[in-house]
Write a structure and sequence with these properties.
about 150 residues, alpha/beta, Rossmann fold, 5-stranded parallel β-sheet, two-stranded antiparallel sheet, 5 helices, about 35% helix
């Protein structure tokens, strides 16, 4: 079970690498990156197929980022998540958020076995302040039904 404390700890990490940023503004990888950036988060785009996103350098992987990364948000297919988690571990990263749909039980197990704080089955935009639009509505109902992490 994911706790509110781990979520809060993740959200104060700087910077956050966003794995799976898309060039397509209609894809969640792009909108999530853009929304976090607009909310004041320090985010670094990672996608091996793109050299820049909105004028920001986009890195092919975590190892190529020159800054020390504190946390990773993963927005890729579950079969890619395991490799990302292994790379994050090799880089000494202790906070990983597997966006809904990116989670892999094997990757979650790896994180738990290796002391990585892991968040899964949750949408970061329901917790990154300020929570807006659809995510605010969704958060209300999740809380109403007692399924919001405590």
């Amino acid at each position: 079970m994911v706790s509110k404390k781990i979520i809060d700890d993740f959200l104060i990490q700087k910077p956050i690498a966003v794995i799976g940023v898309s060039r397509n503004p209609k894809k969640f990888g792009y909108s999530c990156y853009r929304d976090l950036k607009m909310r004041g988060f320090q985010v670094i785009p990672v996608n091996p197929n793109v050299s820049s996103i909105d004028g920001e350098e986009c890195y092919p992987n975590l190892k190529s980022i020159t800054e020390k990364i504190s946390a990773v948000l993963i927005i890729v297919h579950p079969e890619q998540t395991e490799a990302v988690v292994a790379e994050a571990f090799a880089c000494g990263i202790k906070y990983i958020w597997m966006q809904k749909g990116a989670e892999s039980q094997k990757a979650v197990g790896f994180c738990n076995a290796n002391g990585i704080n892991v968040i899964y089955n949750e949408c970061i935009l329901m917790f990154a302040q300020p929570v807006e639009s659809f995510h605010k509505f969704h958060r209300f109902f999740v809380k109403l039904f007692g399924k919001l992490p405590k």
